[in-house]
Amino acid sequence: MEKDTRPTLSLKAGALKKAGAKKRRKQRPNPNAAPKQKHPEKFGAKSGAKSGQEIQNSADSRLIAFNILEAIIGRQQMLEAAFANSEGFKGLEARDKGLVRLIVATCLRRHGQLTALLQKMISDQTAEPVQLVLKIGLTQLLFLELSQHAATDTAVELVKKIGFERQSGLVNAVLRRTIREKEIVRSKTTAIDNLPAALRASWQKNWGTEQTAAIAELAAQTPPLDISGTGDVAALAEKLEGSPLTQQTIRCSFDGDIRNMPDYDAGNWWVQDAAAALPVHLMGDVAGKNVWDLCAAPGGKTAQLIAKGAKVTAVDKETPRIDRLRANLKRLNMQAAIKTADILDDDFGRTAQHNDIDMILLDAPCSATGTIRRRPDILVRAERPELARLQEIQIQMLKNCLSWLKPEGSVLYATCSLEPEEGEEVVGAIIQYGLGRTLPFTAAELGPFATALTPEGWARILPNCLVESELNKDTTWLGNDGFFIARLAPSAA
Prior knowledge:
Layout: H1 13-18, H2 52-74, H3 79-84, H4 87-90, H5 94-109, H6 111-121, H7 128-143, H8 148-161, H9 168-180, H10 182-186, H11 197-207, H12 209-219, E1 225-229, H13 233-239, E2 243-244, E3 250-252, E4 269-271, H14 278-281, E5 290-294, H15 300-307, E6 311-316, H16 319-331, E7 337-340, H17 346-352, E8 357-363, H18 387-404, E9 405-415, H19 424-432, E10 436-438, H20 443-446, E11 459-461, E12 483-490
Parallel strand pairs: 5-6, 5-8, 6-7, 8-9
Antiparallel strand pairs: 1-3, 1-4, 2-3, 9-12, 10-12, 11-12
Helix pairs in contact: 2-5, 2-7, 2-8, 5-7, 6-7, 7-8, 7-9, 8-9, 11-12, 18-19
């Protein structure tokens, strides 16, 4: 085994027990800046005296961030659900909401690194709530441009608020030593540590060590905002202060409340990752055709199809998801036939068979591992998704879709997953069973995603696909969701 020659942390358990017992002289700010996020939020960055109310607000924001993180990490809530269920978050001012979102997202993205660092700094017997407080503090000190003293002071107050006042000295000691030894601390981990062991092993096996490291680096960054819209893309990009990324996508640096962006209420655009916009593009000319969008919520692909002139039937099985779909289409001033149904249900299948369907878009339910840039809660899931069960569902869904089409019809199958079990293996099984045949993509169709073209004519899009293109040399600005996409037709009789 190669010897680790990196600097050794001085944050030993014994030293920490004694830390804080002695009054230390005031330290000068560390001149070494943390790695910059693409669009840092400089909350608390200004020095100077703060009012009691400002200090209280900062402490309250950290407590809310703590509660949301505990819901996600401790109780395995989904990211969106944890924010939606937080009454404290709802009551914050816009600026404080931004701070909480930034801390929560970064702590999740860097959770593997934070965990690895704490293993070197404190006893593994330290209570989990105290460890989470320390992770929040380390997130601010190592990965965000926040005030060092504010990060430390609010962490000390936070650990007291959650009932662990006796551990305040430990928290203070760890964070103040981190300030003094920031570069040593940071050097002890890399982004690859953030990937759960099962995902890391799977991706290294399937995509290689170099690709996996690149995916990990992108997953650790705050992603830009991708927009799909109607009308002139260039004009919309100028209005939104973004840049046209592909024929169908505008990339923006905005990371606040999207409702404050120009033309939101006018319904001229919607949020959609560049890779997520590709499946509809690959369906070609859909104008005037009877197209069914299955598993359609929240409706980004439905909106694309409507904008391209298709006669769309949007289907999803859960009422809350259908409600969200309706609301999104209403804002966009778009209409579709909407059905609440389970596409695995036999009654639905008998209905679908008599609708002269030209094309079907099946964005199948999956593990969503390709979305880790925007869904960092995936990185802290305690258990790996049941891929065998998901694959079974996906194969049955795709089989059904192929049986509902006109003879000359086609299905566009997509999953936002990096797992071959949910992509290549599903389509391979369909072909092996004689249920369908591939309508291969071309490099020209894929455009900036051309490197994703497989020998079979499918698209295997990794999160660093756009980084490998010539679109932009600033790799922190690029990245995309991971997808598998295939186009199929029923097997010839």
